[in-house]
Amino acid sequence: MSDCVQTRSRGHCDPRFAAIRQAFEENFAHRGEVGASVAIVHRGELVVDLWGGSRDAAGTLQWDADTLVCVQSVTKEVVALALHIAADRGLVDLDAPVARYWPEYASAGKQDTKVKWLLDHRAGVPVAADATPGMAYDWLRMTEALARTQPLWEPGTTPCYHSANYGFLVGAVLWRVTGMMPSAFIREHVAGPLGIEFCIGLRQEEEARVATFLGASEHVSATWVAAGDDNIFGRSWRIFWPDEDYNSSDWRHTEIPSVNGHSNARSLARICAAMAEGGTLAGVRLLSPAAMTRAAEIQWTGTDAIGRYLSMSLGFIMTTPSFPTTGPRAIGMSGAGGATAFGDPDRQLGFAYTMNSMYPGLERSTRSAALVEALQSCCV
Fold first, then answer.
1. Strand locations in the chain, DSSP E?
2. Model confidence pLDDT, tens digit, residues 133-185
3. What one-character-per-residue DSSP string does 164-176 give?
4. What global pTM score does this model have?
5. Which of 89, 79, 164, 99 is CA-nearest to residue 129?
6. CB 332 within 8 A of CB 343
């Protein structure tokens, strides 16, 4: 292994997980990695905490221990976790109609939509009514539009990954029952107690540590967006700009709780470790064991209306061949381009990988796959 590759891996790695370090460094040498971090929390201990590469395409800015990066749709799962926390505290009933907490949502045939169908992508509203480019940057316009949107299917029936609208739907209920926007709730009730960083809408002092997000124009979603009305994803993406810039100041600072969360592997691994440990990590309780069990209950498995094969619990991606983990009960998170995280209750571990160079395909990236395969080899 060359000295150049070795310098791209910094941090610490327990000898038991040496295969992770090797796979991480091989990602830079052979799989096109630019900048990334990987972390594992095992039985409450941070056993792997590695980072390397650069924050920019030119390689002039070093990826550091505290570098943050956009984790795309991993944001959805953290917002789902926030709603589970509110439900665990008795603020919302997941089996109740959404309209109990968000009365305006009862319009256009959505009066019987249950909160849990927002969580498991069966709300039937992947496309917002009267969508215009840039609308995603206006919370009130988005939530008002979703309230009057007519479902594409009867709510609770057809699974369809709500790529654009998910965080606004779940976040609106959270906002109504707690009085807090998703970003503020997560900072206070998830990130703060766990001592981590997860930001939906960066503060000025945080932006200086953010990695440039690379390769968006090559990702398969860009093709879908260009197709416009020819597919659901393209229609759903009307709320963003046609040439959305994931590095703009607006993207980084506005609250878009479906896709613009910023974090690092260390932070996501701690979140997932808490989920793997029944909702509590190092004395910090996010959820009760009963609430954690319910969150992990599989609601559907199969090919959704967009064409993705998924197994979905109440807000989380579960193990399938296209989302491999270390065990059948692992509960996970996935973001466009490669960001991956999951918690495995059988092995009591949380795993996370974040990066700034998007893998172009829809399914798991070769880089995240290599890390997961290495982790599987470490698990006995």
1. 10-13, 35-42, 45-53, 69-70, 198-200, 261-263, 280-281, 284-285, 300-303, 309-312, 317-318, 331-334, 340-344, 349-355
2. 999 999 999 999 999 999 999 999 999 999 999 999 999 999 999 999 999 99
3. TTHHHHHHHHHHH
4. 0.95
5. 164
6. yes
